[in-house]
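[job 0412] stage=complex_fold ligand=2-acetamido-2-deoxy-beta-D-glucopyranose status=START
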Amino acid sequence: MGWFFSPVLGVLCWVFLLGCANGIGANWGTQTSHPLPPSQVVQMLRDNGFQKVKLFDAEEATLNALKKTGIQVMVGIPNDMLFTLASNFKAAEKWVSKNVSGFVSDGVDIRYVAVGNEPFLQTYNGSFLQTTFPALQNIQAALIKAGLSKQVKVTVPLNADVYQSPSGKPSDGDFRDDIRQPMLSIVKFLSDNGAPFTVNIYPFISLYSDANFPVDYAFFDGSSSGVVDGNAAYGNMFDANHDTLIWALQKNGFGNVPVIVGEIGWPTDGDMNANLQYAQKFNQGFMNHISSGRGTPMRPGSIDAYLFSLIDEDEKSIQPGNFERHWGIFSYDGLPKYQLNLKTTNTGALVRVRNVKYLDKQWCVLKPSVSLNNPKVADSISYACGNADCTSLGYKTSCGDMDSRGNISYAFNSYYQKSDQEDVACGFDGLATITDMDPSSASCRFKIMIDVDSGTTSIRPLHQFREQSLGFLFVFFCIALLF
Ligand SMILES: *[C@@H]1O[C@H](CO)[C@@H](O)[C@H](O)[C@H]1NC(C)=O
Ligand SMILES: *[C@@H]1O[C@H](CO)[C@@H](O)[C@H](O)[C@H]1NC(C)=O
Ligand SMILES: *[C@@H]1O[C@H](CO)[C@@H](O)[C@H](O)[C@H]1NC(C)=O
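[job 0412] stage=complex_fold status=DONE, emitting structure tokens
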């Protein structure tokens, strides 16, 4: 049995256990016109070795699909519920009873409740400043009353601009002056209750909003524009931003509060810096970073993080920018967009959502005979784009290279598909026609929507059982080896 103890196997086991230590999570948002069936998405999560998901609400169908899967869940409370939950303890009790207790007893592994989502974003003008903390307190009290406060922790996912550093050095980090008091109340409460601080960190947004932001500092390959801070050298923005938070926590007496990276990722379309190449580079760099177990200078060790996001959402608000609908590592139909090794599977390749049912292979396009000068064209485009999704049209986007006829067709098709290929949705005052010739090009995909009415579910208990027992045997074997 000498081969059992070969160094190769030892290293394999070590890597395996390390990879298991924290795992990687995914944000699963559902602001989409044609959602994939939750059971198929959950199967895909398992196929890809995701160990946890973060949700933005507590939808029943989603939570039901997560029953007895072993996947850890963070459920979310939308900002528009904060006022009610802050002012009414009974409402908080009901929320916990309906959206946590019931699912926990049915075998959903709920670990966290996210109270609000980035409630202190500056664009909200302080609307949630008064309600976030009391809502957090009420939910925590309701969890205690339900006997769940040991296994389910509260948190508030916050945007990274709740703290800042005037000098750019992490060690000068502190909470923003205008929200200092509410931040300190929240942090103290989290600390008192053994709950984590959750922060969303977006180097992409820094690059998007500042033309002078050094591009390579957004990624993980080291940057000449890094920051030196005492003994620590920062070659990427993620580490520096993360440690600015750690310093802010430490300075205020909360240096031991655990930190979760609630959202991190890179969009693939809708902006000149949102493309497959950058998204691949960023997310792979991040996965390599966390699987190294290195951590950051201020918090060496494992990083607890959720990628943003799992699947594209075509109904997200584009107020922050056209890239908003393109954060997925999978496209709307569950296809991987690029090569990404999550270090959780043997192949190191992303596994697509299986058994996806599409609508018919047909597209709606501008009639070749219609002149571009036709006065009805402009109104038709704005109607189509206003009601569907034209965020892939624009400077340096995936469909940005088409001629005018091409992008009119793109707009028409987007509306037609979103309307489930109804004939009337390809009218446009006689400007449009249906074709079965795919107008897509190498970079620009004319989508066919998925068929939401006849989506199939695939449950393969036997296969799952085999995978699980193999994994279990392997861990057992590794532990045996360690002794
Ligand atoms: C439970 O969560 C859902 C989805 O977020 C929400 O619509 C519903 O109001 C919640 N239930 C209660 C009793 O608060
Ligand atoms: C915030 O204030 C700005 C300017 O005063 C306004 O345009 C915007 O609509 C406000 N947003 C919200 C969410 O209240
Ligand atoms: C459509 O194509 C033309 C190029 O002929 C371009 O100038 C225009 O901006 C495009 N429209 C949209 C909505 O991107």
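The chain has two domains: 3-325, 363-482.
[job 0412] exit 0
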